[in-house]
Amino acid sequence: MKPYRKLISILAAACLAACALAGCSTASNQSGQPSEKAPETQSSILFCGSTSLYPIISSLASSFTEQYTTWDKVDPSLPAENISVYVAPGGSGVGVGAVTDGTADFGMVARDMKDGEISALGADYRSFVVAHDALTVSINSQNPLAQVKTDFDTDTIRKVFSGEISTWDQLDPSLPTEKINVYIRDLSGGAYEVFQKTVMGDSKVSDSATQSASMTELATNIANDPWAIGYAGFGAYNKVNAKGAALVALKVNGVECTQDNILSGAYTIQRPIQFVSGSEISPTEQAFIDYIFSEAGYAAVEANGYIPAFSPNSR
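Structure (tokenized):
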């Protein structure tokens, strides 16, 4: 029995409280209330971490519990207990920490795992890559830069995000002397680490950059500010643009952020969207994992604008 099971209700509440402090939103289960019998039958599953993966797992938790209600309806060998799948957003770092200290079954992570993190999770470490994502370097579609220049090298992008280039006319003399407003994810987000590693290097993002609690919030911030620039995730970019072109993604070193270029590796500012575990996978956990990698999971990944990293039911 995993150490947190006896305290699952308390921990779920604590996780929600922690996530609220971190700017998170909600958790999901089949009824909105934890099952009292769940701790004894190990029928509860807790995911915590990346806000990029959160909407996918959250929607699948809802549809899974709606479809089956109790575990035995998924598989007769499983207990006839209510299904409880909790999903709490908080950032990739929070997710890794939660699964490492045993307060969550799965950590949701929107970046590569670090060697030290894998080592800390031990011999039972498992990773499940759900989607491919990339960080677009996006501006507001109303920004006149989109009409004159849409290709920048990494060095120029680094100078913009560090504040060395601070007004739009410094990028092209035809543009107004308006301040460049930089939007980033908060420091617990996997995207922050990916952008730092692939673009910023040893340079520091400007202290004046506005931090966003989720990738969706970051993309929305850019869409609402004509003088904004930020690294919106490919999924968030597609979702915001689904109702009309609100964002324009700049080419980076001549490479456009497209599905083909992400999958080929030509577009280098990219990351996996995954969840990880450091414990042996239980039968109920495996049942939900199978659902994630089913047709329903594939559809949820696409609906959130990401590139699925699997073929349905191929695992």
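Residues 1-40 have pLDDT under 50 and may be disordered. The first strand starts at residue 44 and ends at 49.
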